[in-house]
């Protein structure tokens, strides 16, 4: 699954640590999501979407879809 | 019992490692006591069980530590525990049959938990690297 988490975070000038604190996860988890090594659970994906004020489909896309 | 515990701080070193060190200290005291003290049967039994309370603390600390982690960290722990648990079984089975064949001396139980702890730490390191 592809995602725009890194881009959205950079647009807000947040560090990985800032986003991790807002989501209540570790910085390693944010890094793993951004690099595509880990796909978050549905509850965490909803929390990410809520944090960025976007729908989930505006952040996460199936592999091969336009990002 | 575990669910009523407040969330742990998430520190591996303040929780499980501290409890494991307490259990290790109790094991040393217990071993020395059983070897050097002249105790009654009840005394020997109590001395042998000295390691149990800090060991239960370790179980509780490990559970609280894992419960306090986020979902990726929990996945890393589960994978590391699965790898170390199964590798320890394979290792112990191998050692047992090599012993039966007469090619290895008898090993004590300290070998088993030491091997499991070492494999868990190694597995945790390598599993975590996959997500870094």
User: What's the order of the H and E elements of chain A?
Assistant: EHHHHE
Major β-sheet profile of chain B? none
Outline of chain B: flat
Computed CA radius of gyration of chain A, to the nearest angstrom: 11 Å
**Strands of chain A, total number:** 2
Beta-sheet strand percentage of chain A? 5-15%
Please give the count of helices of chain A. 4
Helix content of chain B: over 70%
Q: How would you classify the quaternary structure?
A: heterodimer
Helix fraction of chain A, binned, reads 40-55%
Number of strands of chain B: 0
Give a structural overview.
- The complex is a heterodimer of chains A (67) and B (132).
- By secondary structure, chain A is mostly helical.
- Chain A contains four helices and two strands.
- Chain A has helices at 5-11, 16-23, 27-34, 42-52; strands at residues 2-3, 60-61.
- Chain B is an all-alpha fold.
- Residues 1-9 of chain B have low confidence and may be disordered.
- Chain B has five helices and no strands.
- Classes of the chains: A mainly alpha (67), B mainly alpha (132).
Helices and strands, with pairings:
The complex is a heterodimer of chains A (67) and B (132).
Chain A: E1 2-3, H1 5-11, H2 16-23, H3 27-34, H4 42-52, E2 60-61
Antiparallel strand pairs in A: 1-2
Chain B: H1 16-36, H2 41-48, H3 52-67, H4 71-100, H5 110-130
Helix pairs in contact in B: 1-3, 4-5
């Amino acid at each position: 699954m592809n995602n725009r988490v890194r881009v959205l975070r950079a647009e807000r000038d947040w560090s990985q640590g800032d986003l991790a604190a807002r989501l209540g996860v570790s910085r390693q988890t944010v890094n793993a999501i951004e690099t595509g090594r880990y796909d978050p659970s549905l509850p965490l994906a909803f929390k990410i979407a809520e944090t960025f004020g976007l729908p989930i489909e505006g952040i996460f896309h199936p592999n091969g879809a336009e990002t | 019992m575990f669910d009523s515990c407040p969330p742990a701080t998430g520190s591996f070193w303040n929780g499980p490692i501290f409890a494991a060190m307490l259990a290790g200290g109790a094991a040393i005291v217990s071993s020395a006591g059983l070897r050097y003290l002249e105790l009654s049967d009840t005394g020997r039994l109590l001395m042998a069980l000295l390691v149990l309370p800090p060991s239960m603390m370790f179980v509780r600390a490990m559970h609280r530590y894992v419960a306090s982690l986020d979902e990726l960290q929990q996945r890393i722990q589960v994978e590391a525990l699965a790898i170390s648990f199964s590798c320890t079984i394979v290792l112990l089975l191998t050692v047992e049959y090599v012993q039966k064949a007469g090619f290895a001396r008898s090993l004590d139980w300290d070998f088993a938990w030491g091997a499991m702890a070492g494999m868990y730490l190694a597995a945790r390191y390598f599993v975590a690297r996959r997500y870094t």
